[in-house]
Amino acid sequence: MFTMVRFPVAAAFGHGPSSTAWPMSYLTTAGPRADPVTALVWGLILLSIAVSFLIAVLVVWGVLVRRVPGSDEGVASMAVSRPAGGLKWIWIGLVPTVGALVVALIWTIYAIRAVDSPGQSPALTIEVTGHQWWWELRYPGSSPNANFTSANEIHIPVGEPVLIELKAADVIHSFWIPALGGKTDAIPGRTNLTWIQADRPGVYRGQCGEFCGLQHAHMALVVVADPPEAFEAWRQAQLRPAPQAHDTVRAGQALFDAHCGACHTVSGTAAGGIVGPDLTHVMSRSTLAAGMLRNTRAARLGWISNPQALKPGARMPATDLSARELAGVESYLETLR
Ligand code: HEC
Ligand SMILES: [Cu+2]
Asked: What is the mean pLDDT of the chain?
């Protein structure tokens, strides 16, 4: 009936992201918060391969070339002897080993320093709060009426560092956008800081990285890196309150306010709940329920009538609306662009 978002989620957006085939791969990254770590990962992989290869060669050489004379006749007939000069092999082994470890250590320290904080001051701050099982996003502005709230789809301007203030509403979650950086935990009662930067426009998939309950696997998010003008246009659109409901959807709005408004906010209306995602611009998002469903009419109807059938345990109850009432609510939602 409705479409589940399949791997890769980026297809839902219709434009080419940086790594369409493997959206969760951390081996191809797209910004300075992640690239130094990726270089380190590849470096350590190559170093490990080189060390393993060297050891393999030495073992084969020891077995085939440095055979003890007479060992073919069996261990019992081998003379016990310790030729002089064997100790030097300890040193020959120790020097490259320590050398490799020192290189790895220095490179690691360098990589940690490089990703610790952005080179320039962040263009923007976003407060990201993990909930079971969705992400609340708050974009603070310079004045109270320049704030807005959204969910699950983080838009950022391309090429600029963005500070992320991480919180959690219930249990520990972890913010993870593999192409843009490593995980940072979101811990109840704390604010953890991290930052992201995307150097190429595109869609970067993320996922809660800390088991947080039954629907942990359905707690995805995406970062959409927009060119500056597109980002500004998106921001302006998000700042607008919901349009005045037209006569044709007023009944739907009344039903929404009565049945949904205690949990969902639609700014500029009576609906001011904060238990679930802000729906003021729900139609501008490409997925629903933290990346689980594509945001289509069929998916919305299916979700609203029985979220528990799709995401068992989600903090949204099934509704007892009749089919007609459901269609009314849906036509109201469709105005929330
Ligand atoms: C008890 C609180 C509660 C009520 C009542 C409720 N919801 Fe929800 N709703 C939630 C929560 C929590 C989520 C997030 C679920 C998740 O993704 O795990 C949600 C998610 C949604 C989403 C997906 C939004 C997104 O961006 O992912 C839509 C759409 C939605 N609800 C519509 C409705 C409508 C319409 C009603 C009324 C018929 C309603 N909800 C009633 C709590 C509620
Ligand atoms: Cu989580």
From this structure: 89
